[in-house]
Amino acid sequence: MERILIIEDDEAIAMIEKDFLEINGYEVTIALDGEIGLNYAQTKPFDLIILDIMVPKLDGLTLMKQLRPVLAIPILFVTAKTEELDRLRGLGIGADDYICKPFSPTELVARVKSNLATYERIKQQFDHTPVQNELVIGPIRIQPQTYRLWVSDREVTLKRKEFELLLFLMEHVDQVLSKEQLYDHIWGGDAFGDLRTVVVHINRLREKIEQDPSTPKHIQTVWGAGYKFIP
């Protein structure tokens, strides 16, 4: 089931959108302000975002600038002003589609279906390597495509970097990976080159997936060398 995030401060409108999208088979989450929307987008896996330009706390343009560099999923921008559409398109803010209020729920559903279909075609066109839909090692089951994780059949929510770090470790099971290797692969030029970033994220992962984080079974420290994932 495809997941949609609605970032909209008008709760009545958001609920109408949610109802129609759910009728059409989508799983929908609502955020009533920009700060909540940003937190959801960064910590939960979604397939599409519907973003209103006038949401409080963090407006739509600010949100878009923060989300677009880290999310490749379609983002549908909503505005209440027809004359705003040309300006928004001209800004090149990275939205995949624009829709002006008032709009019918059926139009919204049609736009959502169209953007999701386009996104899927693009992924298939440019992804020339086989995609592993699921990786299962011991009690841990991870889905790279959807950013979902289960530990002993209990779903666990990870932030994006935590997820990518765990996936990289699991793809190199029983191999020792240095902090430098982990940092370069996950963060590249981000986080100012501080290797403590790796330590912080390893500790967070242990808190979320280990039965006893103080004596980790799966993410083990190899003193003086780095970390390795053990089934």
From TrEMBL:
Residue ranges for the DNA-binding region feature of this UniProt entry: 132-231
SMART domains to which the protein is assigned, alphabetical: REC (SM00448), Trans_reg_C (SM00862)
Keywords linked to the UniProt accession: Activator, DNA-binding, Phosphoprotein, Transcription, Transcription regulation, Two-component regulatory system
Source organism, top-level taxon: Bacteria
Any matching Pfam family: Trans_reg_C
One GO biological process term: regulation of DNA-templated transcription
PROSITE patterns membership: OMPR_PHOB (PS51755), RESPONSE_REGULATORY (PS50110)
Residues modified as 4-aspartylphosphate: 52
A cellular component term, taken from the record's GO annotations: cytosol
Protein name as catalogued: Two-component system response regulator receiver protein
Species in which this protein is naturally found: Enterococcus sulfureus ATCC 49903
